[in-house]
Amino acid sequence: MSLSHSSSSSDVVLRVNGKRHEVTVDNRSTVLDTLREQLGLTGTKKGCDHGQCGACTVLVDGERANSCLLLAVAADDRDIVTIEGVADLPAAQAESDLHPVQEAFLKYDGLQCGYCTPGQICSAVGALGEADRGWPSVVTQDTAAGIGGAAALDAAEVRERMSGNLCRCGAYGGIVEAVLEAAASPATANGEAR
Ligand code: FES
Ligand code: FES
């Protein structure tokens, strides 16, 4: 634990995309604002700033998190992956510069606007990791048994698991196809950055 703090600020260590950052943050600062304003990582977007749209989704210790709801002090000494680091996650298709989820989004035209796409891709990577860990969703038939990995996802599972990422546009169909294709390729789950 690296945290030291006063009544208004704290010194924290954020490990972002495999790089260690020592920063002093206002105790009220979110990970989202710290990434964007102190670390210059503007790929993560602020949509609603209220935990409702998913635009700010990042991976924290391999799991999805709305960075607008996560205080930087609570992310001290944890591993964060943003859209800038997704392509460096371990992935099967080493011949590509992109993560398989990014490749699939391109292939199926799952791209949305610049505000929505980073969160959608981070969320998709996180969702595949959750499925690989066997975590059920509310549409999983046997929630006690869980799901047998990302390859076992179907369209209903993908829609449910991606339902925290909202916009008013029409790319959802392409996103479902993209996530299913990425789910079918091995080793697309999130993990430690290389
Ligand atoms: S900006 Fe975080 S959920 Fe909308
Ligand atoms: S794609 Fe960004 S608001 Fe719809």
**Associated small molecules:** FE2/S2 (inorganic) cluster
Large-scale geometry: globular
Q: Give helix % range.
A: 25-40%
| H and E order | EEEHEEEHHHH
Major sheet size, sense and barrel closure: 6 strands, mixed
- Are there runs of 5+ residues with pLDDT below 50, and where? 189-194
* SS element count, helices: 5
Which structural class best describes the helix and strand composition?
Answer: alpha+beta
Radius of gyration: 16 Å
Distance between the termini: 23 Å
Structure description:
It contains 5 helices and 6 strands. It has 194 residues and is α+β, with helices and mostly antiparallel strands. Strand 1 and strand 2 (9-16) form a beta hairpin. Helix 2 (100-107) crosses helix 5 (172-184) and helix 3 runs parallel beside helix 5 (172-184). It is globular and about 50 Å long. One FE2/S2 (inorganic) cluster (FES) binds at residues 112-113, 115-116, 167-169.
